[in-house]
Amino acid sequence: MGKTLAEKIWEDHIVRSAAGEPDLLYIDLQLIHEVTSAQAFDGLRLAGRQVRRPDLTIATEDHNTPTIDILKPIADPVSKLQIDTLRNNAKEFGIRIHSLGDADQGVVHVVGPQLGITQPGMTIVCGDSHTSTHGAFGAIAFGIGTSEVEHVLATQTLPSSRPKTMAINVEGTLKTGVTAKDIILAIIAQIGTGGGQGYIIEYRGSAIRELSMEGRMTVCNMSIEAGARAGLIAPDQKTFDYIKGKPHAPEDFAAAQSYWETLFTDADAKFDVEITLNADELEPFVTWGTNPGQGLPLNASVPNPAEIKDSEERGAAERALQYMGLEAGTPLKKIAIDTVFLGSCTNGRIEDLRAAASVLEGKKIAPKLRMLVVPGSERVRQQAMKEGLDKVFIDAGAEWRNAGCSMCLGMNPDQLAVGERSASTSNRNFEGRQGKGGRTHLVSPLVAAATAIRGTLSSPADL
Amino acid sequence: MEKFIKHTGSGVPLRRSNVDTDQIIPAVYLKRVTRNGFEDGLFSAWRSDPEFVLNKEEFKSGTVLVAGPEFGTGSSREHAVWALQNYGFKAVISSRFADIFRGNSLKGGLLTVILPQEAVEALWVAIESNPATAITVDLETRTVTYNDVTVAFELDDYTRWRLMEGLDDIGLTLKHTDSIDAFEAKRPSYKPKTLPIRV
């Protein structure tokens, strides 16, 4: 019997396997950031261990960095210490780091692909759950905790139990205004936040093949929101073209590509689970609740918990509506928004900024509404400025910021106030995620831009 | 890591599903560079509500958290495990855990126990009717026992052995350095490297 893409990559990385033990998996690349690494480096020091492969490791600053005045000393002393700790650790252990002000500083999952170090057939880890983003290139990429960060630093391997495989086939053609973000939000709404638990998801089908690399990254990025260990997409000519010309593209490109071309699921391979979605029927999608599975098409209304059969889900919906300050039956398009956040590892790439700018061009955002545009990386920011997108945003009344995770997780000063409501292109609508008491609706960049103009959840078709 | 063989303590019933790691510990608490002191951030938003279970006198000394399904979804922050441990929890019981959280907990010696949802519900009822109910989580027998109830749980032999011996995972892997060397010798040269830096 044939193998799935995930099985092929997994087997290519087994250093050691023994009955009754997890496989010891070789890790091709570890990405490091300030929040989940300090304790790992401390662990190394305590045990007198070295970093085994600094040349397969790269660090950047993203989660806890300011997006204004980036070249001034960081105001919050605790944040400053965390950034300084990363810089000192990188220096001590000989690890490449892209700090604030550097062209390759930015959200770690935007930086890897833009440098061309994210390539098909790799195993990639990072102390961040959205590492699944890199699966868009046909890699097994997953988030790990700090103990595992230390493990990979010390050994370049990770003991891992082999996940099961799931295929999600998205067949058909997306309507105008429907994007990769809407695909993944619809998938999570269908299978739930635990639907992917224990699986590596392979996204397949004509609608996935049609997506750009940026769109594929958006889909794979939110695999974790469905509970999956990882998500990936078979590499194709688009993948190869994207990597070609990037700084770390293989010197012997032909040799690499001939391996990459073997990375697909065999026709006779069998997935543990298969799910199919019809792309023709998808609409712009938005979340109404406090987990990413609580989403609906933008044309729908806030659901009535009383109509939900499952008691657990009903209770969760009741709590969510209370937290979100929403009444059952309210059309989603009537929900007024205070803040629009465009950015994050989900939707902070150049294509996302272009999409939002195309809607905002020549228009103004609603009075009293605040819009933050935070490019995924400094390189994305520079590219956007070269294309004049910064002017479009600023003229529309938005704030044009420096790169970082920013309001996606509200760790730096970019936060929602208590009761404030956002339309956010990020990945999590958890209670308080974007600031204590803040309320988040997850949307695509197109919906974010249209919402900024109208002040209520909207799609460009409503303008 | 401290050995985990058996723990007996009282329980804390957390009747919520989808308790994500942002609830367990919000991002603003993740700025510290140590592994301790995270207890003040544990469930910080909910703890401002006097009715929240951890604020109730009868549950303040609980060491076994009994939570709804999909516990630990979201972010990979191991701080969530540290916060629970720093607060004093030794075990968490739920019918479903998110993968990364579960991996982190078992690496760090916080025992996450998967029981069927009916068993979790029964345990909630028992704790709520008598908060002093002693709950024993026994790794040797792979059982949870309280009152006259004993429920078995599954945990793979390897993880169980590692927890019971309190073994350092990195130390175990370093015993196989030869295998890692051999693997690296065969890695294709086109695999990318971060150094030297190319622009």
TrEMBL record, chain A:
Q: Which UniProt keywords apply?
A: 4Fe-4S, Amino-acid biosynthesis, Branched-chain amino acid biosynthesis, Iron, Iron-sulfur, Leucine biosynthesis, Lyase, Metal-binding
Q: Which reaction does it catalyse?
A: (2R,3S)-3-isopropylmalate = (2S)-2-isopropylmalate
Kindly list the cofactors needed.
[4Fe-4S] cluster
**Record carries keyword Membrane:** no
Per the record, the GO terms for biological process are: L-leucine biosynthetic process
According to its UniProt record, what is one Pfam family this protein matches?
Aconitase
Q: Which residues form the Aconitase/3-isopropylmalate dehydratase large subunit alpha/beta/alpha domain?
A: 7-455
Q: What GO molecular functions are on record for this protein? A: 3-isopropylmalate dehydratase activity; 4 iron, 4 sulfur cluster binding; metal ion binding
User: What InterPro entries does the entry give?
Assistant: 3-IsopropMal_deHydase_lsu, Acnase/IPM_dHydase_lsu_aba_1/3, Acoase/IPM_deHydtase_lsu_aba, Aconitase_4Fe-4S_BS, Aconitase_4Fe-4S_dom, IPM_dehydratase_rel_enz, IPMI_cat
Q: What is its EC number?
A: 4.2.1.33
Membrane spanning stretches:
none
Q: In which pathway does it act?
A: Amino-acid biosynthesis; L-leucine biosynthesis; L-leucine from 3-methyl-2-oxobutanoate: step 2/4
What family name appears in the similarity comment?
Belongs to the aconitase/IPM isomerase family.
- Protein purpose: Catalyzes the isomerization between 2-isopropylmalate and 3-isopropylmalate, via the formation of 2-isopropylmaleate.
Q: Cite the NCBIfam families for this sequence.
A: leuC, PRK05478.1, PRK12466.1
Q: What is this protein called?
A: 3-isopropylmalate dehydratase
Organism, scientific name: freshwater metagenome
From TrEMBL, chain B:
Domain named Aconitase A/isopropylmalate dehydratase small subunit swivel: residues: 1-117
Q: Which UniProt keywords apply?
A: Amino-acid biosynthesis, Branched-chain amino acid biosynthesis, Leucine biosynthesis, Lyase
Classification via InterPro entries: 3-IsopropMal_deHydase_ssu, Aconitase/3IPM_dehydase_swvl, AconitaseA/IPMdHydase_ssu_swvl, IPMI_Swivel, LeuD
Q: Which GO terms describe its biological process?
A: L-leucine biosynthetic process
Q: What is its EC number?
A: 4.2.1.33
Q: Which cellular component appears as one GO term in the record?
A: 3-isopropylmalate dehydratase complex
As one GO molecular function, the record gives: 3-isopropylmalate dehydratase activity
The record's section on CDD domains has: IPMI_Swivel
Family, per entry: Belongs to the LeuD family. LeuD type 1 subfamily.
Extract the HAMAP family matched here. LeuD_type1
Record note on quaternary structure: Heterodimer of LeuC and LeuD.
| Protein name per Swiss-Prot or TrEMBL | 3-isopropylmalate dehydratase
Organism, by scientific name, is freshwater metagenome
Taxonomic lineage: unclassified sequences, metagenomes, ecological metagenomes
